[in-house]
Design goal:
seven-stranded mixed sheet, globular
């Protein structure tokens, strides 16, 4: 499985960005795709995730009401719409895939596959 993320960039506080992550290769029918982020000098933290079958979602408290995760089944692509961005959202954003998908996990070790990061910088 390969994951290709895109959509990062520089945006002013209060602005919006949409990230995309396309999966290729062999996947199961019940996998979970998630977004994590890692700011400079900090640990990787969970942002949001979605179960491919059924579309159940989970969000970190820090992004609830501002970020929306969605998927396009046909394109095997997950999106992260980020609104009302603030400087604390500045980080490298990484998409990840849990092939087993038993639960919507928030811990990085649950995810076996990772894409390259995409930088999101929010200026004040």
């Amino acid at each position: 499985v390969q994951l290709q993320a895109s959509g990062g960039g520089l945006v002013q506080a209060g602005g919006s960005l949409r990230l995309s992550c396309a999966a290729s290769g062999r996947t199961s029918s019940s996998y979970v795709m998630g977004w994590f982020r890692q700011a400079l000098g900090q640990e990787r933290e969970f942002v949001a995730a979605i179960r491919w079958t059924g579309g159940s979602t989970s969000y970190a408290d820090s992004v609830k009401g501002r970020f929306t995760i969605s998927r396009d089944n046909a394109k095997k692509t997950v999106y992260l719409q980020m609104n009302s961005l603030n400087t604390e959202d500045t980080a490298v954003y990484l998409c990840a895939l849990d092939l087993q998908g038993r639960v919507i996990g928030t811990s990085p070790p649950r995810y076996e596959y990772w894409g390259q990061g995409t930088q999101v910088t929010v200026s004040s």
